[in-house]
Specification:
- The complex is a heterodimer of chains A (561) and B (166).
- Chain A has 561 residues and is α/β, with parallel strands linked by helices.
- Chain A folds into 4 domains: 20-114, Glutaredoxin (3-Layer(aba) Sandwich), CATH 3.40.30; 138-351, Rossmann fold; 363-446, Ubiquitin-like (UB roll) (Roll), CATH 3.10.20.600; 451-560, de novo design (two linked rop proteins), CATH 1.20.1440.230.
- Chain A is built from 24 helices and 13 strands.
- Chain A has helices at 3-18, 30-33, 37-51, 95-101, 117-120, 138-143, 148-156, 159-169, 181-190, 216-223, 225-239, 253-268, 299-306, 335-347, 349-353, 386-393, 427-432, 451-465, 471-488, 494-510, 514-518, 521-529, 531-539, 550-560, and strands spanning 22-27, 57-62, 74-78, 83-87, 201-207, 241-248, 284-289, 330-334, 363-370, 376-381, 403-408, 414-417, 441-446.
- Chain B folds into 2 domains: 3-73, no CATH class; 85-164, Glutaredoxin, CATH 3.40.30.10.
- Helix content of chain B is 44%, strand content 11%.
- Chain B contains 7 helices and 4 strands, in the order H-H-H-H-E-H-H-E-E-E-H.
- In chain B, helix 1 (16-26) runs antiparallel to helix 2.
- The longest helix of chain B is centred in the first third of the chain and has 12 residues, at 34-45.
- Chain B is elongated, with a radius of gyration of 19 Å.
- The N and C termini of chain B lie far apart (55 Å).
- Classes of the chains: A alpha/beta (561), B alpha+beta (166).
């Protein structure tokens, strides 16, 4: 594969596409697929064949369009008039009506308005190809300027210059902790490792999206898998690695299938393998399936799992940059971080640094879910306020209920109450408010949720997911869950509260890895903002939201029986 | 050749062991291929029994204790065969907020089994998932690999009835 050959592929594909004057894109990402979007696509395909308009009307399966709650989504585009319409809740029987509309008026009963904040307030960088290209065809990705960043990096830039651009962009790790990506890359690139038998560096993509309530990585992998591969290739070139692994959850079969396909295609056209683009750079990628352990999102546990062992973390240092996979220097980044790389190299680090706030640059993809009108995937510039997220993009709380809290960061994050609504969403502000950015799950809760119950839910999660290696986490999460259950059952005493606070402190400071250290976060943040709810449970034996009590007590009984 | 270095023979004549052998070969018979191999066994046989664990451990030359340790550490692996149908209820945050606990309580009451168990007639297995990533469709339930979104108690009962009375 030479740069000219890549241009050739792009040219051929663009030419082939320009013959289609009418385009119908059907979302075939997991969200819409579970609402039968495949049958919608099949029906449209059949109808197009039946009408004999195959030569100028194209039906294409594309990635996620964002508004998952209204799926299956179908978008149509007539090139000559520039008419683009988005349809929601489409059924297979609607196929003929949609094809009719290409020649005339839109089907008004199915139209989904795109002039609303949900679409207008977004800024798409990571998701720019989602819902536009066919994730199963590399040609489509190449035609959308895919792999040009890789060619640019390989032919025009030294590895040092690549790292320089990433550093300038101010990109920070999108997995949750927000470690500066440029710094991580330069550490790995300088690392000589500790092994006597030579150095072989690795690049690992962390696609073990374990946070309940987060589905950004899955969506990126399903909608634009080549984007992630391109990011990994550029990273490998920058740090001098020649082998890579993508560690992806076994619970995401569709993402695995599309990734496997993407790797095969990239190998076929010579973008993965030996001497890529005629340079001395070689890179191979392999998939590793997770097996349902939340702790494997932690980098040292992930490494153990890729090596085929139990996913238990180990103390750091040595950091993976020194001693990672198979004892060699290893670069580990999240899916979304890798997905940001190609545009940064294409447009320059400075371009990226213009977006966002002073310390948090660029955009962030959030999975908006819970008690909110519009649920789905959104990409917004850093620094947007929570109020805009919930009430404008999210469209507010359904059924006229009252907003109570936003939960970010999953089991490691916290609940942000009403008075945090005007806070900007960036790494520092969220940390100050007692939560974390996390991987991007954002769950909205209304007055029907009890905060004690939510804290108990997350503690239950941490308790079962604790790997059991260090005692503070293994025993501490159990004890905290016991106290929270007692509070929910109205049988707790004020002493229990004191014990709970002590345990929060203990776990935070003595646990081995991030799971245990952050496990108290949901409790700490709800204790801080919703102390009166805890008091109501303990002193008045009442649950203000009406969640805890008889029903949960019965459930507990069954569990112990 | 020393007998303990020789490749063990599959426990049964079952053709599915060929798939397992293929995975082992692809991993270069390295110990690091343990999780991948267990995935293949589970995909082919539905669960991991002692016989399978013993075979995989011997093929990859890891102690049986380590194979067993890995198989029990990860939630995805199961050591018991599943029922004819499986019902997976998502217990992710978004689904929990939207009432997946009620769904779970209902199934537990109706079928008299706890998560991870199978009914006595081996018809239905009940499982819970940490998060399916279908948060936009909460609460989500997977009936035999098929994801259903925005599930209500009544709709779920209806679906389960088809299985239990079939």
């Amino acid at each position: 594969m030479t740069p000219e050959e890549l241009d050739q592929i792009a040219e051929t594909e663009r030419e082939a596409q320009s013959q289609f004057t009418q385009r119908v894109n059907v979302c075939v990402a997991a969200g819409c697929l579970s609402c039968q979007s495949q049958s919608v696509k099949d029906a449209l395909d059949q109808e197009v064949t039946r009408r004999g308009i195959k030569d100028h009307c194209q039906v294409k399966g594309v990635g996620c369009m964002g508004l998952c709650s209204e799926g299956p989504l179908v978008s149509t585009n007539v090139v000559s008039s520039g008419n683009a319409v988005l349809y929601k809740k489409v059924e297979a029987a609607d196929g003929p009506a949609i094809l009719d509309s290409l020649e005339g008026e839109p089907v008004s009963r199915l139209v989904c308005r795109t002039d609303v904040p949900f679409f207008q307030r977004q800024k798409k960088i990571v998701l720019e190809n989602s819902g536009v290209i066919d994730p199963d065809r590399v040609e489509d990705y190449v035609a959308a300027n895919g792999y040009t960043a890789l060619i640019k990096a390989l032919t025009e830039m030294t590895s040092h210059e690549v790292i320089e651009q990433v550093t300038r962009s101010g990109l920070r790790g999108r997995g949750g902790a927000g470690y500066p990506t440029g710094l991580k890359w330069s550490t790995v690139s300088k690392s000589v490792g500790t092994q006597k038998l030579g150095t072989q560096k690795y690049v690992v993509c962390n696609a073990d999206e374990g946070d309940p309530g987060a589905f950004m990585d899955r969506s990126v992998l399903e909608s634009d898998p080549h984007r992630v591969l391109e990011g990994m290739l550029i990273a490998a070139y920058a740090v001098g690695a020649s082998e890579g692994y993508i560690y992806v959850r076994a619970e995401y079969p569709l993402a695995i299938k599309r990734l496997r396909n993407a790797i095969r295609q990239a190998e076929r056209i010579g973008l993965l393998g030996s001497n890529i683009c005629g340079t001395r750079f070689s890179f191979r990628v392999d998939l590793r399936l997770g097996a349902g352990a939340f702790v494997c999102g932690e980098e040292t546990a992930l490494i153990a799992s890729v090596e085929g062992k139990r996913g238990t973390p180990r103390p750091r240092p040595p950091y993976p940059a020194m001693e990672g996979l198979f004892g060699q220097p290893t670069l580990i980044n999240n899916v979304e971080t890798f997905a940001n790389i190609a545009p940064i190299i294409r447009n320059g680090g400075e371009w990226y640094a213009q977006i966002g706030t002073e310390k948090s640059k660029g955009t962030k993809v959030f999975a908006l879910a819970g008690r909110v009108e519009n649920t789905g995937l959104v990409e917004v510039p850093m620094g947007i306020s929570l109020r805009e997220m919930v009430f404008e993009i999210g469209g507010g709380i359904p059924e006229g209920r009252k907003f109570k809290a936003v939960q970010t960061g999953g089991p490691s994050g916290g609940c942000l109450p009403t008075d945090c609504l005007d806070m900007p969403v960036d790494y520092e502000s969220l940390a100050r408010a007692g939560s974390i950015m996390g991987s991007g799950g954002m769950i909205v809760m209304d007055e029907s949720s009890c905060m004690v119950d939510v804290a108990k839910y997350f503690m239950d999660f941490c308790m079962t997911e604790s790997c059991g290696k260090c005692i503070p986490c293994r025993v501490g999460t159990y004890q905290m869950h016991r106290i929270l259950s007692a509070i929910a059952n109205m049988s707790a005493t004020p002493q229990d509260m004191k014990m709970l606070e002590e345990l929060c402190d203990l776990l935070k400071h003595t646990s081995l890895c991030g799971l245990g250290q952050s496990a108290p976060n949901p409790v700490v943040s709800t204790l801080r903002s919703f102390a009166e709810e805890y008091r109501a449970h303990i002193e008045d034996h009442k649950c203000p939201a009406g969640v805890c009590g008889a029903q949960s007590a019965a459930a507990e009984e069954r569990e112990t029986a | 050749m020393l007998s303990y270095l020789a490749k063990p023979t599959p426990p049964t004549q079952d053709k599915r062991w060929k798939l397992v052998d293929a995975t082992i070969r692809r991993q270069g018979q390295q110990q690091r291929g343990l999780i991948e191999t267990l995935h293949t066994v589970q995909e082919a046989f539905g669960y991991l029994d002692t016989q399978a664990l013993r075979y995989v451990a011997m093929s990859l030359r890891v102690p049986l204790s380590r194979a067993y340790g890995v198989a029990t550490f990860y939630h995805f692996f199961t050591l018991k065969p599943a029922g004819e149908h499986t019902c997976v209820i998502c217990m992710g945050t978004a689904c929990y907020i939207k009432g997946s606990q009620q769904l779970l309580d209902t199934v537990q009451r109706d079928l008299g089994i706890a998560p991870g168990e199978t009914t006595a007639d081996k018809k239905v297995s009940l499982l819970t998932a940490r998060c399916l990533g279908s948060c936009g469709l909460a609460p989500a339930v997977v009936y035999d690999q098929e994801v259903a979104g925005k599930v209500g108690t009544a709709a779920m009962r209806e679906h389960l009835k088809k299985w239990t009375h079939a």
